[in-house]
Amino acid sequence: MSQLSTKHLLGIKNLTLDDVQLILDTASSFKEVINRPIKKVPSLRDITIANVFFENSTRTKLSFELAEKRLSADVVNFSSSSSSVKKGESLVDTVNNILSMKVDMVVMRHSSPGAPHFLSRNVKANIINAGDGTHEHPTQALLDAFSIKEKLGEIAGKKIAIIGDILHSRVALSNIFCLKMLGAEVMVCGPITLIPKYIASLGVKVELDVKKALEWCDVANVLRIQLERQQIKYFPSLREYSLYYGINKRLLQQLNKEIVIMHPGPINRGVELNSDVADSEHSIILNQVENGVAVRMAVLYLLAGQKS
Questions:
Q1: Which of 168, 192, 239, 240 is placed for a possible disulfide with 226 were both Cys, Cβ 3.0 to 4.6 Å?
Q2: Over residues 1-19, mean pLDDT
Q3: Residue range(s) occupied by CATH 3.40.50.1370 in the chain
């Protein structure tokens, strides 16, 4: 199989196992490209891509922009804070106005779950979901899977614990779908107030004790506490969260094995991860960032072959 089964990347849920494998294999080729002295290829020389971000982003936006430029695409950046959206323009009108300037693909981050799906039904362009509310963040899950495979050689049969604010995390949901599809065992761990009630129906284990989760897993993917999405208090204080769920060197030294530490960023240092772990030999956090460019290059390249 050399092409995706879909014209859009809306979520991991919308991909097949063949799609995921093709993206990861293609990303391996692009990882070689970005480590060459000349890092550009002319693959998307005739394609124009708009990055439409209705929410703040540093890593994802930079990663997509770099991936697009490495593929020689023309890039347009759109920020809602300085746009006509502030004047009441609708999402479809905003994007159609961008597309009328002959844009081929739209990379969109939006605070509303389902916004990319809605857009894909209403505009003529390939849509890539760069995060929709608390729903999905498919390219993060793909780069996480790529990073685990690169580090451990295989994902099938591995035990992955996702630790932290599961309730508000689009990364957690996309990771669960992706890792389960690739044959991993998945556990979620965090305060009971931050674990969705439906989560066990996705075929994952639930653990409330972080030490037990770490003893069980091969890889710990640690998530940020998303205070900006929390309308009510889910735990007494950050200090208390750190005391019960923060991962530090001492905790890792109590395990009778080595585990891999991941984090999608940005890290709240001293809350979910101490610096002595984030910057340690256990951590592949910076590898994730590097792999993000290769994975997004793969997604853009493969979707460009699927004209909407």
A1: 168
A2: 93
A3: 12-136+290-304, 138-288
